[in-house]
Amino acid sequence: xxKTDTIAACATAAGxxxxxxxxxxGALVPAIAAAxxxxxxxxxxxxWKLSHGTAVDPDSERPIDEVLCVVMPGxxxxxxxxxxxxxxxxSPVVVERIMGAVHAAGARPADRxxxxxxxxxxxxxxxxxxxxxxDLINAxxxxxAEAAWEQLQGGLSARLASLREQLCGLLAAAxxxxxxxxxxxxxxxxxASLRALAGLQSEVxxxxxxxxxxxxxxxxxxxxxxxxxxAGKSSLFNALLGHGRVLVSSEPGTTxxxxxxxxxxxxxxxVMTDTAGLGEYLVxxxxxxxxxxxxxxxxxxxxxxxxxxxxxxxxxxxxPELLEANIELAAGADLLLLNKLDLGCSLDSxxxxxxxxxxxxxxxSALSGEGCEQLAxxxxxxxxxxxxxxxxxAFMGRERHRVSLEKAALALQxxxxxxxxxxGSELLAFELRQGLEGLSALxxxxxxxxxxxxxxxxxxxxx
Length: 463
Ligand SMILES: Nc1nc2c(ncn2[C@@H]2O[C@H](COP(=O)(O)OP(=O)(O)OP(=O)(O)O)[C@@H](O)[C@H]2O)c(=O)[nH]1
Ligand SMILES: [Mg+2]
Fold this sequence. Notes:
By secondary structure, this protein is an alpha/beta fold. It has 16 helices and 13 strands. It has three domains: 7-126, Gyrase A, domain 2 (2-Layer Sandwich), CATH 3.30.1360; 143-216 and 398-444, Four Helix Bundle (Hemerythrin (Met), subunit A), CATH 1.20.120.430; 220-387, P-loop containing nucleotide triphosphate hydrolases (Rossmann fold).
């Protein structure tokens, strides 16, 4: 339900800063501005113009801070309602006092994302744009910010609107076929409808693909360093990170837990995981037995490998006797690193690469840094291939979008089948309507309050 009362919140991050912004939205904005702001000149507050003055306590008229104030009248404001922004000094105490003054003048504290929720409910943006706004604010690296910006500008909304329009055309034809006789509307052309449906299906499939790209941009690409104990995984992890984040030692089995850190690489957030060595090869050694701890650590490494976008097998290149044990681990690796290049490499890298389906092999030394620059480049290239088509706009979607898109994809597939079998138009219309619902859920305001609550709970207060 749309609440019409006036809301206020501090729009800048909590804590001490040079400047903070208090934001107000709702019908009481003119009255609140008059109650808490005293301009320093005789000119009254003009819409969309910053005005210099003093924020005061409306009851006592005591000055609180020197501020800049702007009024943005609806409906062309962010929320679609009258809005007021007060820029004050970034002291938590000052912010609290100004918020107190604004509340005394009639506003109530805003909920999380309530400003944006009002913007959506007032038609200032659609749901996919509101979500793009969260993604822009939370973007972990440059490419994610660019993709979120595109979506915020309505790129995705326009693409979806065109898909919906085409689907509506097909639905109208199917419904007309149910309601009217052939004499009244002419003979239907199933071949043309099938071609149109195939076009729609491929568009929805490409949206689903770009959804995966969007997730990777938003959450980061996951790279896992795995391999035998003592290969130098942790040393490489530290080298790529640029500082000694994890312990390194000549004892095999130093790392037991998965350790994650994020770095930015070519505009992408790269979530790197250092793992415990995979030590099955030790089991054959009568002097060593796998303990429960070894097994638990191995299990965690395997899980990290499963979840990764890029699997990097780290091999001690100076120990040819471990070739067979490394070959056992090579299947599924995207990149093979022959570490300890400074000690000389005597391992048959061609056989290793063969076991990994021809994955590239790179010689590096975590100790001397040799090859580490080339490693960053190779990882960047590999990530590009993981990310797919360059230039394809990413859809910064969420799980609910994937579910809706899959619902649409399935309905379109069923509709194609029905058309091919020349089945009844009633069934066809049903499937097309399902497809339309799936697409609409991505951008349209839902009448489901709970879903809206979930969407806007991701926002901070003040946005
Ligand atoms: N000479 C040389 N030694 C290295 C290099 N990289 C790692 N080491 C040494 O190899 C040993 C093992 O390094 P770690 O980074 O702890 O190896 P790890 O793969 O993380 O080992 P676990 O955590 O036990 O599985 C340490 O003594 C490192 O100093 C390298 O490039 N050259
Ligand atoms: Mg380690």
